[in-house]
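Quick question: what would this complex look like in 3D?
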Amino acid sequence: MKLLSGNEAIARGAYEAGVRAASAYPGTPSTEILENLAKYDEVYCEWAPNEKVAVEVAQGACFAGARTITAMKHVGLNVAADPMFSLAYIGVNGGFIIVSADDPGMHSSQNEQDNRFYAKFMKVGLLEPSDSQEAKDFAINGFDISEEFDLPVMLRTTTRISHSKGLVSLGDRKEYPLRAYNKNIAKYVIIPAHARKMRISLEQRLKKLAEFAETFPGNRLEGEGHEFAVITSGIAYQYAKEALGDKATYLKLSLTFPLPEKLVRNFVEKFSQVYVIEEGEPFLEEQIKSLGLTVKGKDIFPRFGELSPMIIRQALLGEAVEAGNSSANFPVRSPVLCPGCPHRSVFYAINQMKAIVTGDIGCYSLGVTPPLSTIETCVCMRASIGNALGLSKILTDRKIIAVIGDSTFIHSGITGLIDVVYNQGAITVVILDNAITAMTGHQHNPATGYNIKNQQTNKIDLENIVRACGVNKIWQVNSYDMHELTAALTSATSCGQTAVVIARQPCVLLNKDDCSDKYEITAQCRKCKKCISLGCPAIMIKNDKVVIDSQLCRSCGVCAQICNFGAIRKVGSAYE
Amino acid sequence: MNNNKNIMIVGVGGQGTLLASSIIGQLAMDCGLDVKQSEVHGLSQRGGSVVTYVRYGSKIASPIIERKQADYILSFEKLEALRWADYLKPDGVLIMNEQEIYPMSVISGLAVYPIDVADQLISKGINLIKVNALTYAQEIGNSRAVNMVLLGMLAYKLDFNYNKWEKTIKEHMSSIVQHTNLQAFAMGWNLHDRA
Ligand SMILES: Cc1ncc(C[n+]2csc(CCOP(=O)(O)OP(=O)(O)O)c2C)c(N)n1
Ligand code: SF4
């Protein structure tokens, strides 16, 4: 027995099932799956530059006959949808699992799309674990199902599955010989003539899987409670058990696409009233209703946010709905850029440029919050560059700056930049190169020169890429040097051409040692609070004095550069 | 809710709350109990408020703890104690570290840090234990062991004996830091006698 998170359990399950290859791009809450798989020498693991590439690499390994897994956060599947739709037609050679980790409640995401609909839309098998043990078991079942029914399988988790720990019993790894790879264009080449045949076989394969779903042990009746009859899946099953305990009889579904129609029909017809308890959208409910059955679901449960036992008790047991948490009046504690974060100084310098600033996804999205309030748009990965170009074509008299991180630039920013050059956009793209994919917990990417196993590898040079995209105006600056930054941004935004500023300084969390040379505020301080406007958590007003918390200071020295009165200096340094 | 124990550990990203909850979870498992533990990572590293739930007992379904369900809340920071206090059961206990960490909303002058946290909690009728864990951690020369002082205070109230805690803590860290961390834990454990 071991206490494992859902993500650790999926990695373990894949390992035990003989997985040989894995490719992914990080994204909360999916990231730890690959991080944990990478610990096993038997498995080829990689960080791909984006999710679409990850799926394509995984497909190649699957075609080669290996059991293969790929994992991404829910929005990652939007990027990877194209190869996934085709793969459903093509089918598999070695077993293929795609993990979609959804984020109801948007703990760290821009939306809460319910990717179970993707499984139905793409026409692939769908497994929904409800705890860590099932996460491991279903990873193993998923490979068997994928190979037996010649279909990719989606293993769909949510934040509370991926990031909750529970007890898991471990098994040994089973080796599966590679399935032979033979040239077979009718299978692997999806031209229309082939695809029309695949289209028909896809329906047949799904039909067989639907039969299998009727007796799959993960789809089962549970309990004998008389008060409620409940159909549920995923984390909602745990919440329902918590709220209703033995008051209810449950149909616990795990293989939810294709739906086991007979099982569901028999269950619903046995009871006068059946509740479908699921988190998110009415995925089960719509399918059940389309069978002509009557159930209650989203008319009494919310379709947004996270579900909880309390919500179920309120809906079914009449528990009083309490007035909102009194904590509403307390100061909020939103995440902020770390003390010493190299993004901060760049935003401060950009703020002096009086430009429209399009943002992107990463730690630097936090540049939207006061006091910096730099970013004016943020849509999805890479959108900063396209948004900036579009804005510049309409608001021709405004300066436009796009900010994008190194990982995001590699993910998809490059194609955006090519568009800017090709269509002669006079905008400035600032690449915030902190030498890591920080937001998701510090993963390497092609620009860092290290791979997922922390081994040195080929390093993709950002300047060379930018130049190869056709950009002639390039500045490379030190993010902590306010003078360099301001000079580069001033020239870039006034050159009338596509300009790129690469601002470099590693993420401060990469250096775990406590730094020396902390800064302090001296008696010269006139309390103008200019340094406070940096929004550094280490600088604050205490007892009516501006002070730097030496525990928090990371010695970046940016505040000392912007102080008009020379009032900030290194601790212990002599007066000049 | 039968014999299940619900524990919340709350604080600010980077304070070491995760280590404390994973020690409790591991220990409960080693004692043959069912365990569920839930935390939300993601943005927590960037100084946001963090909460982890640990639940153990004979059989645990949901990994989360809701309002009025926590037997114990261990708060690493004062404002966070106030923020989560509603999650305590009427007879629950709140152990609060007296450290103040200003959120950006306070630093940038958009909000005021409450000065009377303890009074507010007591007026809500909360069973409050206050501790200045940093001074105790400094006393043994390891200011980073604040989390172990706090864990020691909580552990004293829970159902496992001291030796088992000691063993689990050791398993969670390298031998170099074990000594001061165990000292810090012992300090927290014994604070109840002093109080
Ligand atoms: C399509 C998609 N995939 C993954 C993510 C998760 N994600 C959020 S930010 C980010 C990368 C941030 O790295 P970088 O651009 O280098 O900025 P940093 O956080 O280092 O400042 C990722 C992978 C996402 N939001 N959307
Ligand atoms: S983790 Fe790194 S990049 Fe992210 S806010 Fe902190 S210092 Fe900045």
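Answer marked as accepted. The CA atoms of residues 180 and 566 of chain A lie 71 Å apart.
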